[in-house]
C-alpha cells in the first residue's frame, strides 16, 4: 500500500513517489513528489525527517524537512 494523503481543500487523494535523478556533475539526488495515481516509484512510508504540509491556495500536498 502506497503512502497517501487526502487534500483538505479538494478531497483528492495523492500518492507519494520517489525518483533518483542524475545531475550534470554525476551526483545523484532523490526527488520526492505527490501524484494523483500510484505508479512506478510509489513508496510505502514517509521518509525519515520529513513531514507533509498542504499548499493553502491549491490544496496540493508538499513534503518538507522537519525542523
Q: How is the topology of this model organized?
A:
Layout: E1 4-6, E2 13-22, E3 28-35, E4 50-54, E5 61-65
Antiparallel strand pairs: 1-2, 2-3, 4-5
Account of the 3D structure:
This protein has strands at 4-6, 13-22, 28-35, 50-54, 61-65. By secondary structure, it is mainly β. It has one domain. The strands form 2 sheets. A 3-stranded antiparallel sheet has the order 1-2-3, with no helix packed on it. It is globular. The model has no long low-confidence stretch (mean pLDDT 94).
Strand order of the largest sheet: 1-2-3
Measure the end-to-end span. Answer: 28 Å
Mean pLDDT: 94
Order of helices and strands: EEEEE
Strand content: over 45%
Rg from C-alpha positions?
A: 13 Å
- What is the count of β-strands? 5
Parts with pLDDT < 50 across at least 5 consecutive residues: none
What is the tally of helical segments?
0
Secondary structure category = mainly beta
Distinctive features:
single chain, 67 residues, mainly beta, 5 strands, 0% helix, 46% strand, globular
Provide a concise account of the structure shown:
The chain has no helices and five strands. The strands form two sheets. Strands 1-2-3 form a three-stranded antiparallel beta sheet, with no helix packed on it. Strands 4-5 form a two-stranded antiparallel sheet.
Amino acid at each position: 500500500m502506497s503512502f497517501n494523503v487526502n487534500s483538505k481543500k479538494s478531497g483528492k487523494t495523492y500518492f507519494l513517489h520517489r525518483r533518483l535523478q542524475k545531475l550534470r556533475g554525476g551526483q545523484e539526488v532523490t526527488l520526492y513528489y505527490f501524484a494523483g495515481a500510484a505508479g512506478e516509484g510509489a513508496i510505502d512510508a514517509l521518509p525519515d525527517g520529513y513531514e507533509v504540509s498542504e499548499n493553502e491556495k491549491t490544496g496540493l500536498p508538499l513534503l518538507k524537512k522537519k525542523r
